C-alpha cells in the first residue's frame, strides 16, 4: 500500500513537471511570435516609417506582452510544481525512515574478518581489481588465498562462454572423486555438451569416437541419457527437427555453468553466494520490521536491543531461511553457546556434550552413531547457526 501511495505521488510530480514545462514553452513561443511580428513591421516599413510610427509599434508590442503576462504564467505553473515537489520528500520520510540506526544492534565487529569478507566478495564476483584495492588499503593479505582459486573459476567460465570446455573438463577430471562424493553429474554433462558440439560442427566419426572414449564409462549408470545421445547420430545435420532437438537447447550450457560454480565453491568450502551479499539482502528484507519494532518499543520506553529473542517474526524469502535452532539427535538437547553443534568429518552433526561423551576423552577416537566413520574431538568443527 505504501509503495502504491509513493508511486501515485511521484506520478503527480511528473505530471505537474510536464505541464509546467509545456506551459513555459507555450508562453515563450507566444512572446517570441509577438516580437517577430513587431520586427517584421519595422523591417517592412523601415524607410517610410516615422519615429512616431516606431513608437506606436513598440507601444503595441508592450501592450500585447503585458496581456500575455509571461512572468505571472511562469510563476503560476512553477508554484504548482513546487508544491508537489515539497510534499513528495515529506511522504518519502514518512514511508521510509532515513534513520536506520534504530534497527542497529551494538555488536563488537572483528574488522579483520569483515575486511576479508568484503575482499572475498569482490573476488567471488570476479571483481579482482576491487578486491586487490581492499586488500591493499586494509592490509589484509591473507584474503588473497581465495583470489587465485576464484581466478581459476572465472577463467574456466570465460572459456565456457565461447564453448571451450577443455579447462572445465580438466578441472572436473582433477576433482573427480570429490565430485562423486557430492553426488554431482557434472562430468557427464560437460562431456555431453562437448559431444553435441562435435556432432554439430564435426564429423559423425569424430562424434562416435568421442562417445566411445568419454561417454562409454557412464553407460552403466546413465543408460537412458547415453541412449538419447547416441540416437542423435542418426539425425546429424537435422538435429533441430529431430526428436532430440531439446539436447541442443542453450539451457544445458547455462545449467552446467551454474553447477560448475556451485561445485567449485563447495570444494572451496564457500557458499555460492558470498556471505556479504546474503547478509545485505536479508538485512534489506528484514529492515522494515526491525524499524517498526524499534519505533513501537521506543514509544513504550522499552529497550529492544537487550532482548535475546525478538517478539515479532522477521519474514524473509525462502533462500534466506536458515536453521536457527539445532537439536542434538543423540541427547535431544537444544544447542547453546555452552553446548554448540559440532560437525564431524563424516558430515553428521552432534552437540559438543554428546561428542565428549562418545569420545570419553579428547584424544580418543569414537564411532559416529549414524555411520561407520570414526572421528576424534580434534577433527570436529563448531557450526554457527
Question: How would you explain this protein's 3D organization?
Answer:
The protein has helices spanning 2-44, 51-68, 70-95, 111-124, 128-138, 145-161, 166-174, 176-181, 186-201, 204-215, 223-231, 251-267, 275-299, 352-359; strands spanning 341-343, 349-351, 366-367, 374-375, 381-382. The two termini are 34 Å apart. The protein has 14 helices and 5 strands. It has a 3-stranded antiparallel beta sheet with strand order 2-1-5. It is mainly alpha-helical and 385 residues long. It is flat. A hairpin with a 6-residue loop joins β3 and β4 (374-375). The longest helix is centred in the first third of the chain and has 43 residues, at 2-44. α4 (111-124) packs antiparallel against α5 (128-138) and α9 packs antiparallel against α12 (251-267). The mean pLDDT is 84. The chain folds into 3 domains: 2-93; 124-267, no CATH class; 322-385, 2-Layer Sandwich (Herpes Virus-1). The protein is 60% helix and 3% strand. Its main location: cytoplasm. One of its GO terms (molecular function) is zinc ion binding. Residues 149-206 form the CTLH domain.
Which characteristics define this entry?
single chain; 385 residues; mainly alpha; Herpes Virus-1; 3 domains; 3-stranded antiparallel sheet; two-stranded antiparallel sheet; 14 helices; flat
**H/E series, N to C?**
HHHHHHHHHHHHHEEHEEE
Strand composition percent:
under 5%
Tally of contiguous helical segments: 14
Oligomer: single chain
How many individual β-strands? 5
Q: How many structurally independent domains?
A: 3
The low-pLDDT segments are none
Determine the structural class based on helices, strands and strand pairing.
Answer: mainly alpha
Helix share, percent = 55-70%
Task: Report mean pLDDT, rounded to a whole number.
Answer: 84
Radius of gyration from the alpha-carbon trace, in angstroms: 36 Å
- Major beta sheet, strand line-up: 2-1-5
Task: Tell me the major beta sheet.
Answer: 3 strands, antiparallel
Global morphology: flat
Amino- and carboxy-terminal Cα gap = 34 Å
Amino acid at each position: 500500500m505504501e509503495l502504491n501511495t509513493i508511486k501515485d505521488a511521484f506520478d503527480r510530480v511528473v505530471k505537474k513537471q510536464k505541464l509546467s514545462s509545456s506551459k513555459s514553452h507555450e508562453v515563450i513561443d507566444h512572446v517570441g511570435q509577438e516580437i517577430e511580428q513587431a520586427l517584421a513591421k519595422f523591417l517592412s516599413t523601415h524607410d517610410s516609417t516615422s519615429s512616431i510610427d516606431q513608437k506606436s509599434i513598440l507601444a503595441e508590442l508592450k501592450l500585447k506582452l503585458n496581456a500575455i503576462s509571461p512572468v505571472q504564467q511562469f510563476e503560476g505553473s512553477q508554484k504548482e510544481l513546487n508544491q508537489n515537489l515539497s510534499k513528495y520528500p515529506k511522504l518519502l520520510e514518512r514511508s521510509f525512515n532515513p534513520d536506520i540506526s534504530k534497527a542497529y544492534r551494538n555488536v563488537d565487529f572483528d574488522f579483520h574478518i569483515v575486511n576479508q569478507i568484503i575482499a572475498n566478495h569482490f573476488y567471488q564476483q570476479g571483481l579482482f581489481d576491487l578486491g586487490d584495492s581492499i586488500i591493499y588499503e586494509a592490509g589484509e593479505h591473507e584474503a588473497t588465498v581465495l583470489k587465485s582459486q576464484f581466478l581459476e573459476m572465472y577463467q574456466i567460465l570465460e572459456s565456457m562462454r565461447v564453448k571451450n570446455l577443455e579447462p572445465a573438463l580438466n578441472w572436473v577430471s582433477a576433482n573427480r572423486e570429490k565430485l562423486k562424493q557430492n553426488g554431482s553429474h557434472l562430468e557427464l554433462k560437460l562431456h555431453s555438451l562437448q559431444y553435441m558440439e562435435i556432432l554439430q560442427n564435426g564429423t559423425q566419426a569424430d562424434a562416435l569416437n568421442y562417445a566411445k572414449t568419454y561417454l562409454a564409462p557412464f553407460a552403466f549408470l546413465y543408460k537412458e541419457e547415453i541412449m538419447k545421445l547416441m540416437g542423435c547420430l542418426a539425425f546429424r545435420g537435422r538435429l533441430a527437427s529431430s526428436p532430440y532437438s531439446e539436447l541442443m537447447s542453450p539451457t544445458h550450457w547455462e545449467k552446467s555453468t551454474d553447477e560448475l560454480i556451485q561445485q567449485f565453491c563447495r570444494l572451496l568450502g564457500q557458499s555460492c553466494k558470498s556471505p556479504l551479499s546474503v547478509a545485505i539482502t536479508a538485512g534489506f528484507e528484514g529492515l522494515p520490521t526491525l524499524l517498526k519494532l524499534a519505533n513501537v518499543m521506543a514509544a513504550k520506553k522499552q529497550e529492544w536491543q537487550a532482548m535475546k529473542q525478538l517478539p515479532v517474526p522477521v519474514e524473509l524469502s525462502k533462500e534466506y531461511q536458515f536453521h536457527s535452532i539445532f537439536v542434538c539427535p543423540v541427547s535431544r538437547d537444544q544447542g547453546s553457546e555452552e553446548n554448540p553443534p559440532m560437525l564431524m568429518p563424516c558430515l553428521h552433526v552432534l552437540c559438543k556434550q554428546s561428542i565428549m561423551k562418545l569420545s570419553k576423552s579428547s584424544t580418543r577416537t569414537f564411532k559416529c552413531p549414524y555411520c561407520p566413520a570414526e572421528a576424534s574431538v580434534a577433527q570436529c568443527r563448531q557450526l554457527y547457526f
